[in-house]
Sequence to fold (230 residues):
Amino acid sequence: DAMVIQNPRYQVTQFGKPVTLSCSQTLNHNVMYWYQQKSSQAPKLLFHYYDKDFNNEADTPDNFQSRRPNTSFCFLDIRSPGLGDAAMYLCATSRITGGANTEAFFGQGTRLTVV
Amino acid sequence: GENVEQHPSTLSVQEGDSAVIKCTYSDSASNYFPWYKQELGKRPQLIIDIRSNVGEKKDQRIAVTLNKTAKHFSLHITETQPEDSAVYFCAASADGNFGNEKLTFGTGTRLTIIP
Fold:
């Protein structure tokens, strides 16, 4: 059973047209991450939530925003997508127990194409 | 913030031989070190992890060693098989506070097993 679900799997958007990617989890994990992965590169962390605490990476463009309305859902908003934002976007979750981080589970990813 | 370096970027190994991938990290607060395997077009999946209170962990053909003093850890795959061909990522995170719980990935190693 899928535990971290991303929708859609493939998204095509026009240059400059806002787009939202979604992630949901059934694991009740307290940490949710958004990563950007371009071809043949490592996943690059954009931001993460630890419960409701939002942590933005210093080099994440302002064009990228995130929302976590509840434990189960997290959204990635790209306000004005550029050609350079075409990538695979991976959502992941993990549980911090007693302060210690544990295995991160990844969704299948959303492949974003900007035309 | 944490910086994780990974070597080599590509590795070709004859089937049946061993493969070793090495990572170094910068943040002495990091205490959780997972390794992920990513097959082409698929999500990263955890293959083994280690915490800073142990120096070595083994799971069948896979082992990870950690040298906390030197801030490096390594993945060892023995008796390699064609299905081991994939991209491998190391990662590091610290305890859950002040955003240090985030999972930072290394740059990846493309492992090819030659039949």
